[in-house]
Amino acid sequence: MSTAGTAGTGLGALRRLSDEFDVYSAPGAGSLFFMRLWRDEAAPGLCRVEVGALSVPLAGEDECGDGWGVACDGKGATLLGADGLGHGPEAAAAARAALAELAHRPQAEPVELMEAAHMALRTTRGAAVAAARIDFEADVVRFAGIGNIGAYVLDGDKRRPLVSHNGIVGHNMRKVHEFTVPCAPGAVCILHSDGIQTQWSLDRYPGLLERSPALIAAMLMRDFIRRRDDAMVLVVRRRWSRA
Q1: Rounded alpha-carbon distances, angstroms, from residue 27 to 20, 59, 237
Q2: SS3 150
């Protein structure tokens, strides 16, 4: 179907060719499209989570100082968000150093991961870092953060903020405190850097929370980016089953 006189088969073709495909459109909110093609025949297993994420460098920069990572196993999923101080190559180096610790410790609890990142970032300019571990058996997420990484768990009409403490990972990080909130199947966990406005809301986007996490991340990046710094959004949803 086309309203512009074209053949009207473009999106249909993209849907048929894509391994994953989703669309969100609402009056006054524009449209978002998500298509993913896996390099291999079968999509790599991320166990019982769906992941959508975006990172965008400050205009004029080649490297983004904000990074994200997800590691998953049969018992849970570990999320990490990092915002290197400032922007540019040195900020990106700090973020990479934090994410390397997630690769080394994919099943680590948040406090352990934060302490490892603190040691790894001592030779960098430092970063704001947040770590979360979704526990599939206990139906909770355990969280620890230092600096201004925004973090939330959304479940239906409930929005639970996850609290970070002041400091800079790699320099002046004091004792790390861990917080635990419910995170049942279907719940969505969101981490974002301060390149995204803190006063965002999904109220203007009815039904978006049920769509692909990639579309949620795209909306937050599109409509709430500050454009004065690098920006990162990580959205992870717990699946209802292993399927």
Answers
A1: 24, 30, 25
A2: strand
